[in-house]
Amino acid sequence: MASHEPKTTLRDGEKQLDRSASVLDVQTDISFRETIRVFMRIISYFGFFKARIVAKLAFITLELAFRLMIVVWPAKIVVDHVILGQPIAEGISGFPSYFEPFLQFLDGKSPLEIMLWIVFLGAAMVIVFGSTVSDVGGRSRASASMAQGHDIATQTENEANRGGSQMGGILGLIDFRITLRLMQSLNHLLRTQLAAHVKELPMTTLDDQRIGDSVYRVLYDTTSASLLLEGLTLGLYSGILGVVISLVMMVTNYGNAPEVIVIAMLGFPVTLLLVLPLARVARRRSQASRAAGSSTTSNIEEGMSNVLAVQSLGGNKREGQRFSQASQESFKRFRTESFVILSYNQLYSLSLTLGQVVFFIVIAGRVIDGTFTAGDYFVVSYYFFQLYATFGAWGHMYTEWQRNIAGMRRVFFLMDLQTEKTTGGVELPRISDGIVMDNAGLTYPDGRVALRNINLKAHIGEIVAFVGPTGAGKTSLAYLAPAYLQATEGKVSIDGIDLKDVSVEALRDQVSYVFQETQLFSDSILNNIRYGKTDASMEEVEQVSRVAGAHNFIMALPEGYATDLGTVTSKLSVGQKQRIAIARGLLRDARILILDEPTSALDPETESYLVDALHQAAKDKLVIIIAHRLSTIASADRIYFLQEGEIREQGSHEQLMAIPDGYYRDYVRLQAGTH
Amino acid sequence: MDEMKQAQALPFFSNGEALPKSERAREPGERGFAAIIKIFARTWPYLLPHMIGYWREFPLRHTTGDSETNADGWSFRHVPPLVTVLTAIGPLTGWLPIGTDWQHDFLLAATILMTILTWALLFMRGRVYVGLSLTLALVGTVAFLFAIFAVDGLADNFQVGLVAVGCVCIWVLQYRIDESPQRDESPQLDDSPQRPDGRKLRLRVRLGSHLVYYFALVWAATLLTMVIALFSVDLISQSILQAEPLTPFLSDFIGRPELAAGSGTDQASLTTEQRHSLKWIYAMFMVFSWIVLLPATLLLPYYYIFIMQRVNQDLRMALLQRWHRLSIRYHSDHRVGDSVYRIYQDSAQVTAVIGTITQAAQLLNTYAIGVIFLSALDPILGTMALSIVMLAILWGHWYSPRMREKSLVAREMNSDFTSRVQESFAAVRIVKAYGAGEAEQERLAQDSVTAFNASFRVRSLLAIVGIVTFTLSAVALLGGQLLMAVWASGTREVFAAVLVGLVGLSFIKWNLAAYNWAQEQLGESSVSIRSLVTLWAQAQDMAMGLDRVFNILDIEPDVQNDPNPVVMPPFNREIRFSHVDFAYEQGRPVLHDVSLAVEPGSVTAIVGPTGSGKSSLMSLLSRLFDPDSGAVSIDGVDLRRLDVDDLRQNVSVALQENVLFGMSVRDNIRYVVPDASDDAVLRAAHVACADEYIAGLPEGLDTMLSDRGGKLSTGQRQRLSIARAVVKDTPILILDEPTAALDAFTEHQVLERLSAWGEGRAIFLITHRISTIAQADRILYLDQGEIVENGSHDELMQIVGGRYRNFVETEARLTKREGHDADNPSEAPQPEGGNE
Question: How many CB pairs under 8 A join A and B?
Answer without folding.
Answer: 646
